[in-house]
Amino acid sequence: MRQPDIEIYLKDASQQAVTDWLAEAVGPCSPWQQKGKTFKCKAGEIPVTWLPKAVGKWHSLLLESDTTPWEDDIACARAAFAALGVEIRCAPGGWLEEEAEEDADRWISISERGEEEIRWRTD
């Protein structure tokens, strides 16, 4: 089932590299507009939010649409790793507020080590 939006976390990725990847994968990017600590643009018709250092060295990338080229976070994370060569983390599936706390710490890590499920406390 297609997720309503896509969110991945990228370690040490530059905003310019992400912009270039989005332009190729999704569509031309509008200039980034800074709003506080976040940056917003559109890749094609898809609203995008970039939050540098959202969790330590990890940057958050949110694509606010269900019409991305990817069915879910994991598919996007795989594509981002292939294009950018930096470690990517994402939730293993859609996450709901009412799910158990321990499920909130379950993440998929995609890196040169391969793909693995990890525990990552982000709070």
How would you classify the helix and strand content by structural class? Answer: alpha+beta
Overall tally of domains? 1
- What value does the Rg take, in angstroms? 14 Å
**In which range does the helix fraction lie?**
10-25%
**Can you tell me the CATH class?**
Alpha Beta
Which fold name corresponds to the CATH topology?
A: TATA-Binding Protein
The total count of strands amounts to 8
Order of helices and strands: EHEEEEHEHEE
**How widely separated are the two ends?**
28 Å
**How many individual helices?**
3
**Hey, roughly how much beta strand do the residues contain?**
35-45%
- What is the molecular shape? globular
* Spans where pLDDT lies below 50 across 5 or more residues: none
Strand order of the largest sheet: 2-3-4-5-1-6-7-8
| Average pLDDT rating | 90
Largest sheet: 8 strands, antiparallel
CATH architectural category: 2-Layer Sandwich
List the helices and strands and how they pair.
Layout: E1 6-11, H1 15-25, E2 33-35, E3 38-43, E4 46-55, E5 58-63, H2 73-84, E6 88-90, H3 101-104, E7 106-111, E8 114-119
Antiparallel strand pairs: 1-5, 1-6, 2-3, 3-4, 4-5, 6-7, 7-8
Tell me what you see in this structure.
- It is a single chain.
- By secondary structure, the chain is an alpha+beta fold.
- The protein has one domain: TATA-Binding Protein (2-Layer Sandwich), CATH 3.30.310.
- Helix content is 22%, strand content 37%.
- It contains three helices and eight strands.
- Strands 2-3-4-5-1-6-7-8 form an eight-stranded antiparallel sheet.
- A hairpin with a 2-residue loop joins strand 7 (106-111) and strand 8.
- The longest helix is centred in the middle third of the chain and has 12 residues, at 73-84.
- It is globular.
- The model has no long low-confidence stretch (mean pLDDT 90).
